[in-house]
Amino acid sequence: MSRIVAGAAGGSPLTSVPGDGTRPTTDRVKEALFSRLESMNMLNGTRVLDLYAGSGSLGVESASRGATSVELIEFNDKAAAVCQSNADLVNKVVGSKVVRVQRSKVEAFLARAAESATEPWDLVFMDPPYPLTEEELALVLELLAPHLSSFAVVVVERSARAPQPRWPESMALLSDKKYGETRLWFAEPVTD
């Protein structure tokens, strides 16, 4: 069973998405990821975007650890309902509606964000389904890039066998780390 690892809602069990349409981040990977993000001071007071959210576990973990705003974007009906359940749990614990869920395709959400001039995000999680092609992932990264704060970090989670994402010119690789069958890539905006 997946759980919130630390913070205000630490130890709380999370609802999982039924079936095999999603690939949850293991607790081991999540603990390592959030340890790294805390060392980078990327959690407290940040605006977080969780694309292809699945159960929303990365976004709600961020809210539990002090993020001020979290958007969970998920298109699958069952997964979006699970996101809402997990968001409600964390929002109740932290005492405000920090986590919001939008049922949307990622590309459509980012297109709407461009039209509405939303505030930039500081931390972005992307755990796209394996069938998403490298070209499709590159397009999403291109759409995302203009919506990042100058100190943002983008974390892409893929199979350890997948190639490094093709970053847009306005983003650069910080580092990557392999955890068994999972690899995390960390990128940041290129500043002049």
From TrEMBL:
The entry's keywords: Methyltransferase, Transferase
Can you tell which superkingdom this protein's organism belongs to? Bacteria
Q: Which SUPFAM superfamilies does the record match to this protein?
A: S-adenosyl-L-methionine-dependent methyltransferases
Which terms does the UniProt entry file under GO BP? rRNA methylation
Q: Does the keyword Protein transport apply?
A: no
Q: Which GO terms describe its molecular function?
A: methyltransferase activity; nucleic acid binding
Q: Where is this region: Disordered?
A: 1-26
- Annotated protein name in UniProt: 16S rRNA (Guanine(966)-N(2))-methyltransferase RsmD
Q: Which organism is it from?
A: Arthrobacter psychrolactophilus
Gene symbol?
A: rsmD
